[in-house]
Amino acid sequence: MQFRLQTLLLLFVVAWTSMAAFGPWGLAFAAYLIAMVTCIRIARVRSSRWAAFAAIILMAIFFILLTTVGSARNAYRRMACTHNCQTLALALQSYHNSHGHYPPAHTTDDEGRPMHSWRVLLTPFLEKESFYKNYNFYEPWDSPHNLALAKEMPEAFSCPSAYLSKRDATPSWTTNYVAITGPGTIWEKRTDKDGKEIGQDNAFTDDPNATILLVETVDSGIHWMEPRDLTIKEVLSGEDGLCLAATSNHDLHDGYFVETINQSRGNLIMADGAVKYCRGRITRKGLKALLTTDGGESISPDDFACHPDKEPVIRRIIWTHCIGLPLFCLSFAVLVMSTKITPKDKTNEESTELTEATEGVEP
């Protein structure tokens, strides 16, 4: 059996469009379908019908598996993000146990300019002792020497779901977990008796389980070594008295042609180490109470109620699927329709049928 150039081109188009429609697994799916087409060429018509039927059944199973794998993948990303939050909470507590206070939001030079982030100060407690030893604290965070160490970013600072809205796998070294700084927060600027900046200790009057330590942010735009975080003024600047406490890509509805991402939900790391999942916007009063350490606010459960009707939603058309699937179906249909049994195959088939008929006749 020989393949014509036209058939070989069709095989290539089927494989390419299958990868566009189904991703990397599409290559294996295309290989199976091409094998079925080969069987159609060399087998009898009766067998080819069963091969075509098996191909249709496999396609249905493949679509079901794609949906199941997508859901499992999203659940894994959210679980990994929660693990990152727990790791950061444990590292901050270890820093507190070692120094008697939390790290400052950032250190400053003699002129008061920000120099190094709390994330850099936390690296020894995230199994990055070599980074901490090689880091030059006498130079700014963005000096050539220090920036060369950016690739040693701890995994705990990056959420696996962060780049789903961009589909960009290029590492940008941005962090997805930031502090909320400002007056009254756990990161409020404080100094010790020698005038050295320190972080907050545990001597605050509000419930640690109701005090935010860190928040998840999907697009912070902050380099993980940069001495910058969000301010309480920025976080409390929501419209209609509602504010976003955290943002993420965890609430992803992974449709085949259209993806929907609700970014107004994310993890909150509390002062007692607990990780809570915020499911939408909350009132400005409730968020301020969660951010302050000794406000003693009188608040009601309504102040912490989420408002899903105010949540921003991102909808994105997956053009590779929208274009790839029709082209795959069209190219595969053309491949099957162009498949013909050669005269030699027809002769062999007729001879086989004649032999079977002759053997079935009794003398």
Low-pLDDT regions: 341-347, 349-363
Structural class: alpha+beta
Shape designation: elongated
- Quote the beta fraction: 5-15%
Rg, Cα atoms, Å: 30 Å
Rounded mean pLDDT is 76
Give helix % range: 40-55%
Across the major sheet, the strand order is 3-7-12-13
Order of helices and strands: HHHEEHHHEEEEEEHEEEEEEHEHH
Separation of the first and last Cα atoms: 37 Å
Walk me through the structure.
The chain has 363 residues and is of the alpha+beta class. The chain has 2 domains: 5-42 and 320-359, no CATH class; 66-317, no CATH class. The chain is built from 10 helices and 15 strands. It has helices spanning 5-22, 25-42, 45-99, 118-121, 129-134, 144-147, 232-235, 284-291, 319-337, 343-359; strands spanning 106-108, 114-117, 177-178, 180-181, 190-191, 197-198, 212-216, 230-231, 242-243, 251-254, 258-262, 266-270, 275-278, 282-283, 313-317. The protein has a 4-stranded antiparallel β-sheet, with helices on one face. The protein is elongated.
Give the key terms.
363 residues; alpha+beta; 2 domains; four-stranded antiparallel sheet; three-stranded antiparallel sheet; 10 helices; 15 strands
